[in-house]
Specification:
The protein is α/β, with parallel strands linked by helices. The chain contains eight helices and 14 strands.
Length: 293
């Protein structure tokens, strides 16, 4: 894909996972697949690999990314997951945090953060990120949704609906019912702790993670943030097949005990993966005007 066309910048914040990337692609590929599969618009995508120890390669990627920014070619940003810690001080991440805080979040473009992307955005906004005392939250997990997200003006979360047949006066008709719970793949043991910035609300919560995402809002106090931000602690881009293979990978490399693995595998095999609904939300969020009916 040429960088000389308007595009969504997919900022890849992990290196490919051996054994999985060959089968499914990297985290950037998974994210692009989700957006393409759940939208009606033809986005152009460019992946920017920002997690590398090679300084020359990193310099080249930054040169390309900043050129796209300078030429107003980027319509939105998506930050992927990563096996790194958002509180790490490795070179590539320190450099990326600076770019995120001083440039990306000031451009007025929509920004989506997924898992690590969610955490690193929260980190540069001043939130505390650290290891959870609850250990791994992994596999398909049920999230309790904060109903405040539906009350936002032009909320993209109105995509989180299901059709139900409701009987009224002897007649059946379809009605859209907003979800109060949602099943998403999880794969993290770091969390954003309490204390979101005043112009953000929480997407939802689970028993192991009280902040399952952040949504930027306008408080009407004259301090409106220049950009719009939506983040998710979960992985809507992971299909059930990817999630099961990722569980096996983590178990094989010793990150999960057998009990943790078997429990997560059971939930992932039995619960309905609703990541595609978040894909619809992301589509509407990235280009809301084009998505209006």
């Amino acid at each position: 894909m040429s960088h000389q066309v308007p595009h969504i910048a997919v900022l890849v914040l992990d290196t490919p996972i051996e054994g999985l990337a060959e089968k499914y692609g990297d985290f950037g590929d998974n994210t692009i697949d989700l957006i393409k599969a759940t939208g009606t618009l033809s986005f152009n995508f460019v992946k920017y690999q920002l997690n590398t120890k090679n300084s020359e390669e990193l310099d080249k990627v930054y040169e390309e990314l900043l050129a796209s920014v300078h030429n107003h070619l980027i319509e939105g940003f998506v930050l992927t997951g990563s096996r790194s810690d958002a509180f790490s001080t490795v070179h590539w991440l320190v450099r990326f945090k600076s770019l995120l805080k001083n440039s990306i979040l000031k451009l007025g473009k929509p920004v989506v953060g997924i898992c690590f992307g969610h955490q690193v955005i929260a980190a540069v906004l001043g939130c505390k990120i650290d290891r959870s005392n609850e250990g791994w939250e992994i596999g398909i997990t049920t999230i309790s949704i904060n109903d405040e997200i539906y009350k936002l003006e032009n909320s993209p979360f109105t995509e989180l609906t299901q059709r139900e047949n409701i009987e009224s006066s002897g007649q059946d008709f379809g009605a859209a019912v907003l979800f109060d719970h949602l099943n998403l793949v999880q794969s993290h043991r770091d969390v954003v702790f309490g204390g979101l910035p005043s112009d953000f609300i929480n997407f939802g919560s689970t028993s192991k993670c009280s902040i399952q995402g952040m949504v930027s809002i306008d408080r009407g106090d004259g301090n409106k943030r220049n950009c719009k931000i939506i983040t998710f602690q979960g992985h809507p881009e992971f299909t059930t097949e990817i999630a099961l293979d990722l569980l096996k990978y983590k178990y094989d490399v010793g990150l999960l005990t057998e009990k943790e693995y078997e429990k997560a595998k059971y939930h992932t095999s039995s619960l309905n993966n609703q990541g595609y609904l978040i894909g619809k939300v992301i589509n509407k969020f990235l280009l809301p005007e084009a998505n209006k009916e």
